[in-house]
Every structure is written in structure tokens, then in C-alpha cells.
Specification:
Elements lengths: L2 H7 L19 H14 L9 H13 L6 H14 L5 H6 L2 H12 L8 H16 L4 H14 L2 E2 L5 H12 L5 H10 L7 H15 L4 H24 L4 H4 L3 H54 L4 H20 L6 H16 L11 E2 L4 H4 L1 H28 L3 H24 L15 H22 L2 H35 L3
Parallel strand pairs: 1-2
Length: 502
């Protein structure tokens, strides 16, 4: 076992920290209403489960801080709403005392009216509060170990390389969103955070996020992370036994196979659930758009309605999503064996990773300036335009109008990107040996579609009008009513104790 991994093991809690939530089965009337609302609200956005509570904290603070910036009042209201929605277990409430929460909120309200926009101050505050509630301290230790592992395999000449690799590992391996990454960069400044350090951390976050080399590093980290994810899963499966498991290759292989069986079974269920939810969401969205815009537009501007394009526009998007998700395959036995072998190799040969062939190095500038590069760029632009021109040509032959063609292309690109994101879930445990990845004809043809879908999905996340309506039109009065109902229930409970004699 390598010395760096031995040092890493010494920093773990081995299950002593209460990182597992205790299920609470008691749901009153107010709690039930709050949970129903939160489920409906969370369905409007594509978020991983580990990011849902942080987003809820952000929404609550953002709404409350408009009326009252007092840290004590903010802390009281935040705890109340989180308890209503059952976002906090009893253990988490005990671990994060109210005074700690008030201190955090007081710190961030003092940063207002500076260089950092108020919206992002709230976002970073929500990330720290989420971590304040989170009892799983070992998870961050694995992220640090992943950074140390992958960093030595990247040899790019950049003064901000450590920052870029940290950003990529936190995003890809830990599954953090931008708000959490910004907070983690802030934590690197130490305990005594001043307003100047806060603004500097904000600038570093933006520097890393907008760096031209980040996408290469993200892709490299994604290829390297399956063994590190398996190692993390093995630990959290039986934290008390991890030292015994990693002390012997036979025990390690047995434990790794057992954990893989469990994780892949759960992953299969998550992929199926994500596929079904996506199909339903796409179908309902398409129905609303069809009857709200497409049909009236066709009748008003063209004087008639083409039934075939309408039927295809209604049925093709959910059908495409279903077919795509059904074709997602989990790792084969050979890939699983390679993954386990690679994970053990990292534990035993940590210091030798930097000497491997697949290190990430600088791109030669000549490749960006020579004639071949410009020829390929022109060919790609022609290919990009040709793919969409072919789609428009086929749709026109079927009888699509320009408006219905735009609707079709819009859903095609967005759905293709959503399906691609779901398919990436299945590659979490896929480890391929050193070598170049081959590209199929399908992947080549789908590249322009995915490129447009990626940009459209980013735009949609910023223009989610349903989420805006929930947050600023429905949520405030709904939570006000919940507060009144909660007070009324408590009043009745007190009256019951006062007036009923046993």
C-alpha cells in the first residue's frame, strides 16, 4: 500500500461520524403540503439528488432576504421551512446549531454591496449552510484524494493549473454545482475570511470556470474517475472494514465485486427512472407547446393545419428519448474486471501514476495554426451546416412548415443532449485501458445536434419561466399560508392539553 494512500486513510472517520440520515416517518398536515410543493418545484429543474437541498436553501434565503436581512430572522425562517419539507434529519439539526447558522448568515450579509452580485452571495451562502448540515465529512476527504491522484497525471504549463484541476475534480468527481465549487475555493483561503478574500475567491472561481483549458481537464478527469468512484463506494459500503479490505488483494477484489453488483443494480434503476421521467416531461412539454403555440400559429399564418407534422412532433420527441435511454448499456464483465484491477493499482502504485502514458500535456500551438487545422475547421463547419440542412430538407418533403421545423429541431437537439447526459451515468463504472477512443458513425452525425442541444439547455435553465413563477409568485404566499396553518395547529394542540382532562 502506498504512503499517500496510508496517509489518506488516517484522515477518515471510519463510520464514527453520523453521515447517514435517519428516516423520519412522522408527517403532519403542514409537512405533507410542504413536501408535495417541494417535489413539484424540484421536478422543474434537472438536478442530482445531492444538490436538491442546497437549491432549496438558496431559494428560501433569496426570498427571505428581500424583506429582512437580519441573520437571526433568516436563520429562524430557514430552519422552519427546511423542517417543514423534511430536508433535515434530527441528527443534522443537532449537528448544526442555530447559533452557527446565524454566524454564517451574518458573515454573508456583511458581504452585500461589494463586487460580488447579491445573487451569488446567496448561492455561496447556501453552499456553506448545506455543508454545515451535512454530517458526511469523509466525502470531502475522498475528493481531496482524487485531486492528488489526478493532479500528478496532468502536465500543462499554466500558473493556475492547481485551481483548474481542483475545479474539475470538484465538479466531475464530487458532483458539485458551481455554487458549491465557489464555496470550496473560498475555503482554500483558510478560516478567517475577510470581504477582500471573499471577493478574491469569487474572481478565482470565474477565472477557472471561463478558462479555455478547463474543458480538456474536465474530459480528462471524467476518464480517470471510475476507479476513484469505486474506491469511495467500497469505503462507504463498510467504512469500519476498509483497512482490512485494502490490506489484501483477494479481499479487495471480493469487496469490489460485491459493491459493483449493488451499485450497477441501483444505477440500472436510476437510468430507467430518469428515462421514464424524461419521456413524461418531454411529452407534457410538447403537448403544452403544441396546443399553446404550434397549432394556433399554423392556423393563423398558414390557414390550415398539417396533421402528419403535428402528430410526428407530438410523438417523435418522447419516442426518441425512450429509444435512446433503452439502448444504454452497463459495463461488461471485462470492463468490471479492468476497473477493479485499476483501482488496486492506484492503491499500490500511487507514486508511479505520473509516469503513465496517458498524462495530459500541452497542445502544440502549431496544430492550431497550420493549414491542416484550418482545412479541418472549414470541413467541420460545412459538415455542421450540412447535418441540419439535411434535416430541414427531409422535414420540408414531409410537409413541415418553417415554424414546425424549428420546433422539431429544438426538441431534437435538447432531447439528444438530455439522453446524452443520462447515458453518461452508465459510464461512471466504465474503465478503458490506455488508448484512443474510436468514434462510430452515429456519434459523428450526432455531434452537431449535441452541440446545439448543450447550448439550448443552458439557455433553458436560465429562462425557466415555470421555476420563476413557482419562486416569486406561488412560493411566497404558499409558505405564508403554511406558516399560518402551522401556528394554528400548534394553537389547537395547546388548547387540547388545556381543556381535555383525563
Amino acid at each position: 500500500m502506498s504512503k499517500p494512500f496510508t496517509a489518506f486513510l488516517s484522515r477518515l472517520s471510519y463510520g464514527e461520524a453520523e453521515f447517514a440520515k435517519t428516516e423520519e416517518t412522522s408527517y403532519g398536515f403542514v409537512e405533507t403540503l410542504a413536501r408535495v410543493y417541494e417535489r413539484a418545484r424540484n421536478a422543474l429543474e434537472y438536478r442530482a439528488d445531492n444538490l436538491v437541498r442546497r437549491a432549496a436553501i438558496e431559494r428560501i434565503i433569496k426570498r427571505r432576504i428581500l424583506l429582512n436581512k437580519d441573520p437571526k430572522s433568516l436563520a429562524d425562517n430557514l430552519l422552519t421551512e427546511l423542517k417543514w419539507a423534511k430536508y433535515l434529519s434530527l441528527e443534522e439539526l443537532k449537528g448544526a446549531k442555530k447559533m452557527n447558522l446565524e454566524t454564517v448568515l451574518a458573515k454573508y450579509t456583511s458581504y452585500l454591496h461589494g463586487k460580488v452580485p447579491q445573487e451569488w452571495i446567496v448561492k455561496i451562502a447556501s453552499a456553506e449552510i448545506e455543508e454545515l448540515f451535512n454530517l458526511n465529512t469523509d466525502y470531502n476527504q475522498f475528493t481531496l484524494f482524487a485531486f492528488q491522484t489526478i493532479r500528478q497525471k496532468i502536465a500543462i504549463d499554466d500558473e493556475n493549473l492547481d485551481l483548474l484541476v481542483y475545479f474539475a475534480v470538484d465538479k466531475v468527481y464530487a458532483g458539485c454545482d458551481d455554487e458549491q465549487i465557489a464555496y470550496h475555493i473560498l475555503k482554500l483561503a483558510g478560516e478567517n475570511i475577510t470581504k477582500e478574500k471573499f471577493e478574491e475567491a469569487w474572481e478565482l472561481f470565474n477565472l477557472a470556470k471561463n478558462h479555455k483549458g478547463l474543458s480538456r481537464i474536465n474530459k480528462f478527469v471524467r476518464r480517470q474517475m471510475p476507479p476513484l468512484i469505486l474506491l469511495r463506494d467500497i469505503y462507504f459500503y463498510q467504512p469500519q472494514s476498509i483497512k482490512e479490505v485494502v490490506s489484501n488483494i483477494d479481499k479487495f477484489q471480493t469487496s469490489a465485486e460485491e459493491v459493483l453488483d449493488i451499485q450497477l443494480e441501483q444505477m440500472s434503476g436510476r437510468i430507467n427512472t430518469a428515462g421514464i421521467r424524461s419521456v413524461i416531461y418531454v411529452f407534457l412539454t410538447k403537448m403544452i407547446l403544441a396546443f399553446g403555440a404550434e397549432i394556433p400559429f399554423e392556423i393563423f399564418f398558414y390557414g390550415h393545419l398539417n396533421k402528419l407534422p403535428l402528430v410526428l412532433n407530438l410523438t417523435f420527441p418522447p419516442l426518441l428519448m425512450w429509444i435512446t435511454t433503452m439502448q444504454i448499456h452497463l459495463p461488461s464483465n471485462k470492463e468490471r474486471e479492468a476497473l477493479v484491477e485499476r483501482t488496486w493499482y492506484i492503491l499500490e502504485n500511487f507514486d508511479l501514476l505520473k509516469d503513465e502514458e496517458d498524462t495530459l500535456t500541452n497542445i502544440e500551438e502549431k496544430k492550431h495554426k497550420n493549414l491542416t487545422y484550418w482545412i479541418f475547421s472549414i470541413l467541420y463547419a460545412i459538415f455542421f451546416i450540412g447535418v441540419f440542412a439535411a434535416i430541414f430538407f427531409v422535414l420540408g418533403k414531409i410537409g413541415y412548415t418553417l415554424f414546425s421545423e424549428i420546433i422539431f429541431i429544438f426538441f431534437l437537439t435538447v432531447i439528444a443532449f438530455f439522453a446524452y447526459r443520462i447515458s453518461q451515468t452508465a459510464k461512471v463504472y466504465s474503465w478503458k485501458n490506455i488508448g484512443t477512443e474510436s468514434s462510430s458513425l452515429t456519434s459523428i452525425l450526432s455531434l452537431p445536434i449535441l452541440a446545439i442541444g448543450s447550448r439550448l439547455s443552458m439557455g433553458l435553465s436560465k429562462l425557466n419561466f415555470l421555476a420563476f413563477a413557482f419562486d416569486f409568485i406561488l412560493e411566497a404566499p404558499f409558505k405564508l399560508i403554511l406558516g399560518f396553518v402551522d401556528d394554528w395547529v400548534q394553537f389547537l394542540s395547546v388548547k387540547k392539553e388545556e381543556q381535555i382532562i383525563e
